[in-house]
Design goal:
The protein is mostly beta strands and 137 residues long. It has strands at residues 12-17, 21-26, 31-35, 50-55, 64-69, 73-78, 83-87, 102-107, 116-121, 126-130. β1 (12-17) and β2 form a beta hairpin.
């Protein structure tokens, strides 16, 4: 039966579920993760599993407004439009120009200067939606 995640009760504004891990964003812009952490998809700098939600410290000072959990990687979008990725990078889905795993969130520099408005993580790929400026902008 469904059971309330007491550690996050009343504060969650967004959630995303990956293959074996979950993410939640709280009203203060923090990101929490739990589940399997074998390739760093939890973003805590290690490969440990988490049975309870744990705050991702790398986002201290940031305000996350959207997130997406893929099969073994994760994405976050900050209020300033920066995209961050972490976890399994085996097919380049983290967007850092390589296939390295990332145990902590790392800013996707290839999207710097873009007005990203949404992110989505698939099984082994990622998408970022950018806003198109109209003539009046």
């Amino acid at each position: 039966l469904p059971k309330k995640v007491e550690a996050l009760a009343g504060r969650v504004v967004a959630v995303s579920a990956g293959l074996h891990h979950s993410l939640a964003a709280t009203a203060d812009g923090a990101v929490w993760s739990w589940g399997q952490g074998g390739v760093g998809e939890l973003g805590h700098g290690d490969q440990q599993n988490q049975q309870l939600p744990k705050k991702i410290e790398a986002f201290d000072g940031q305000r996350v407004v959207a997130l997406s959990a893929g099969a073994h990687h994760s994405l976050a979008l900050t209020v300033g439009g920066s995209v961050w990725s972490w976890g399994w990078g085996g097919f380049g889905q983290l967007g850092h120009g390589d296939e390295q795993d990332q145990l902590q969130p790392k800013k996707v520099e290839a999207l710097a200067g873009q007005r990203v408005v949404a992110v989505s993580a698939g099984a082994a790929h990622s998408l970022a939606l950018t806003a198109v400026a109209s003539k009046g902008d």
